[in-house]
Design a protein that fits this description.
The chain is α+β, with helices and mostly antiparallel strands. About 25% of the residues lie in helices and about 30% in strands. The longest helix is centred in the C-terminal third of the chain and has 19 residues, at about 65-80. Keywords: Membrane, Transmembrane, Transmembrane helix.
Length: about 100
């Protein structure tokens, strides 16, 4: 697959299949330009498990360094909102990433 800014890649990808509440998702991902992630997301319904429709844009996704911040947000959201009853939005909003990578 082409990537959105036509950068070189090593022609190696990883696939994520995820059965979510909205449907079944297929995410094909590969690194381009050594540190940028290219992702194409497809979705289908359980009634039609072989008829995937592309729902993402041109494929450009966060770079490897930005993913570190996204992971920080994922952990904070999971701990403060999803695993907390009731969700603690104030605590979530008070957490900040401080560091270098």
């Amino acid at each position: 697959m082409k990537n959105s800014f036509d950068a070189e890649n090593d022609r190696i990808a990883f696939l994520i299949l995820h059965s979510g509440t909205e449907g079944i998702f297929s995410l094909i991902n590969w690194w381009v330009g050594k540190n940028m992630l290219n992702t194409h997301i497809f979705m289908t319904s359980p009634n039609r498990p072989t008829e995937f429709t592309k729902i993402s844009g041109d494929g450009l996704a966060p770079c490897i360094w930005e993913l570190e911040l996204i992971n920080f947000e994922r952990i904070s959201w999971t701990n403060n909102i999803l695993k907390n009853n009731p969700p603690n939005f104030q605590l979530y909003l008070s957490e900040h990433f401080n560091g270098e990578f």
